[in-house]
Amino acid sequence: MLSTELNTALQEIAEKLGKNSEQGKALSQFISKGFPTSKWEEWKYTSLKDFNDTTRNWFPQGEAQISSSVDWASCIIRSTNAHFTVEKPCQQKGIELLNFEEFIQKCPDFSTIWEKKNPILDQNSLFDLNVALSPQHWVIWVKKGVDVDQAILLKYVVNSLETASAAQSRLLIYLEEGAKLSLVEQQNSAGTADILSNYVQEIFVSNGAHFTYLKDQDFQDGVSHIDHTFIYQEEGSQVDTFTFSINASLIRNNLHFYINGPQVVSNLNGLYIPGENQLMDSHTVVDHRMPHSESNELFKGVLMGNATGVFNGKIFVRQDAQKTNAFQSCRNVLASSRATMNTKPQLEIWADDVKCSHGTTTGQLNEEALFYMRSRGISLPAARTLLLLAFVQEVINKVDHEVMRELLTEKIVAKIQQSVDLSK
Amino acid sequence: MLLIKNLHASIGEKEILRGIDLEVKTGEVHAIMGPNGSGKSTLASVLAGREDYEVTEGSVNFLGKDLLDLAPEERAAEGIFLAFQYPVEIPGVSTTNFLKSAVNEIRKYRGEEPMDAVQFLKMFKEKMAYVNIDQSLLSRALNEGFSGGEKKRNEIFQMAVLDPKLAILDETDSGLDIDALRIVAEGVNKLKSPENATIVVTHYQRLLDYIVPDFVHVLYKGRIVKSGTKELALELEERGYDWIKSQVD
């Protein structure tokens, strides 16, 4: 339940949006539900109870400061507090970066796809909040058969300046038939106060299209990032996601795959390394709605200090989805005796001719291995770091973008090393 | 080099070593033999610094330093090497990377400059030829999926690279067929010099056909109950441990 003060503030905004507009309705829905608390099954370990009492600046300004450019990106997009700008335009034909309204005018056929989408939104009041308050609905549109030869870089930044704030960024990605796109997203923050970063991405991948999505989530402490990524895949398409949760006070990733056609491949890779006073939560859904498709899910976590980790992996195999292959694996290392990991694989299988497997493990570093390494002269912190890096390498090595792979390795090594040194 | 005096060690409430006295000088090879459960492996572990054991009494002096005061990695840097009875699998870390870390940490401890990649490679190649080990084994994750023989050969390779002053071989012969045993023993013999020393812990005399000891000690119930030269090992082979037990009990 929202506090009276927050309730009044949001009601006022709802009036302005118009009670019957899509945004006004969404906000009313949010107001009636409030922020999720641990009483909500889907938010058992990730309570946002305190958010119900905090008044915020709901529309922080999106001042774009230009930062250093990179040479590997075909174009660079920036989202500062949910305001999108193009920092370096695309040279290649067949890619458009535009507002949703404009997009729908140019691509009226998309309306049918848009209306058909059917996400699982149980207990997700934050989705409503985003729809209601996002200042801009931005679209990346890749046209039929276009192979975007270099990755697009999206710099996602939230900036609280000096007041508690909330940014509601909303992005739509549409890959037409046979299109190919790799998106690299660097999520960062600035400012001195707390900020709620509530981000919705809806991604439509048409027949035979191929989409790669790499997220580097590296915020300051004080940032709570809630990420909703809903991916709709059609026949013969492939999507590979890589979610690296490196730093933030709180990260909740809702990563959903809806498999709406046969011969679909979905690869979900994730790595989270929360440290002292941090919580990282991955809620994934892979919904096999059609037959002959394949999903592979690999999530790994290193939990340091008094960190909390959550993994909830749902796989649905609907009655029509015969000959589905669905694999899930979640492995965690508690690098500190004060860290906690909560895992919950959830498989619902309605078809009878399928192959599904899942496995979750949570353990500590092998004491024998540590002694073995020390007996060869490797100090305890170095031995721990070496073992942890070996553990996370499996996920990092799957990234085929060399610059990003090196950058991620560097940041992950630095964070693990720092935490290991602190805890010795 | 190594002087052990009245060493007592326990695990939990159970006392396993009950007063060990042993002196090892440079250039010597000592064999520690004894029936199962006599404390052989415990002695090796205590010398290497395994923290499961608590030393309750006695002292261990290694090259003028109180060994018991040092962490396992400091002991390694001072020149102690334990070849494990069951080498541990380290997933995701190649032997090469593992040894690079080890060598440079040891050099740091000794106040020496780290080795660069070129120096490493050169040294590695020399040692590889020395113990006859294949490159493919070294680029794989350390000990992961290795056969028993490969693991032991890798231990000897590590020993060659780290060039210890005192090598302790803990039941290196266990799980080895006769060919692997010979290869491992050849490696150990090649690494022997007047400047270093070796302690061979073994249950059977077999290994001592290949690594010839200067002294043989029989450990029983946590004490050295008999010491002698290599002939003692042969006598044990022939008569078993029972005659020693009956002398002691």
UniProtKB/TrEMBL annotation, chain A:
The superkingdom listed in its UniProt entry is: Bacteria
One Pfam entry for this protein is SufBD_N
All residue ranges annotated as the SUF system FeS cluster assembly SufBD N-terminal domain in the record: 20-152
The record places domain SUF system FeS cluster assembly SufBD core at 164-391
GO BP annotation list? iron-sulfur cluster assembly
Which InterPro entries does UniProt cross-reference here? Fe-S_cluster_assembly_SufBD (IPR055346), SUF_FeS_clus_asmbl_SufBD_core (IPR000825), SUF_FeS_clus_asmbl_SufBD_sf (IPR037284), SUF_FeS_clus_asmbl_SufD (IPR011542), SufBD_N (IPR045595)
Q: Where are the transmembrane segments?
A: none
Q: Which family does it belong to?
A: Belongs to the iron-sulfur cluster assembly SufBD family.
According to UniProt, the name of this protein is Fe-S cluster assembly protein SufD
Protein's organism = Aquirufa rosea
UniProtKB/TrEMBL annotation, chain B:
Q: Residues of the signal sequence?
A: none
Which InterPro entries does the protein's record reference? AAA+_ATPase (IPR003593), ABC_transporter-like_ATP-bd (IPR003439), FeS-cluster_ATPase_SufC (IPR010230), P-loop_NTPase (IPR027417)
* Gene Ontology molecular function, alphabetical: ATP binding; ATP hydrolysis activity
Q: Which domain of life is it from?
A: Bacteria
The keyword ATP-binding is assigned to this record = yes
Ranges in coiled-coil conformation = none
Where does the ABC transporter domain start and stop, copy by copy?
2-246
Q: Which family does it belong to?
A: Belongs to the ABC transporter superfamily. Ycf16 family.
Protein name from the UniProt record: Fe-S cluster assembly ATPase SufC
In its UniProt entry, the species of origin is given as Aquirufa rosea
Tell me the classification of the organism that encodes this protein: Bacteria, Pseudomonadati, Bacteroidota, Cytophagia, Cytophagales
Q: Which gene encodes it?
A: sufC
